[in-house]
Amino acid sequence: MLKVILVVVGLIALTIGIVWLIDKFVPKKLKPVLNIILWALIIFLGYLTFDSVYGEIKFNKLKDERYKKVIVQLKDIRDAELAHKTVKGQFTSDFGKLVNFIETGKFTITQRRDTTVVDEELTKRFGGVTMTKSLVLIDTLGFVSVKDSLFGADTRYKTMMNLPKGIGPEGSKVQLDAGVLSESNIPVFEASVDKEVILFDQDKNLVAKEKEVMSVDGVRGSKLQVGSMQEADTKGNWPKNLSTNN
Q: For the chain, first and last CA: distance in Å?
């Protein structure tokens, strides 16, 4: 973008210089026509410069608006996946199973308490002198619905895999993957949407540039994602300004 602006500004400066030269050295009969042509060219180049700058401003505003909407869904998916792992010990790559889990799954409410009991083996070793040991007991107090805990009466979890209307071609969905790390066997998941899908109707050059962003104040990489299939990480790759809760 900066290169384009510099080129256009350079052309404008060159055109103004040509106008000055014409005014100095071209016969008076030809000056009016050439001046009109050159000033028209200056105005056109000025418009291109303005349109380039304003076009990128509009792109960035629209991009951030769409990212924020997709981030809301990615955070819902993350919450659901973390609940699934808490109850079942693993993540899932199947949205159907995840939705069913939200509707039927339950968290176990437990209470931890410390207690002291007689250690019979040590008591025998010490000739009948009573010896004790400390134990941690986990009491089950009850169960609570996953759906009520995460979403209450809201049913948005049923469509959290579908991109909002106007974002992506019709029928576009969030990509979901899950598994374990090969070396440590730690469960991992990743939910993502390619930037090219989110910005499907925008200028291809601006989209290509956006996919190469690696700065901390932008969405790093070619896609908007939460979680990772390469490491045990459940964070999103978006900056704080796009979400009040990362």
A: 30
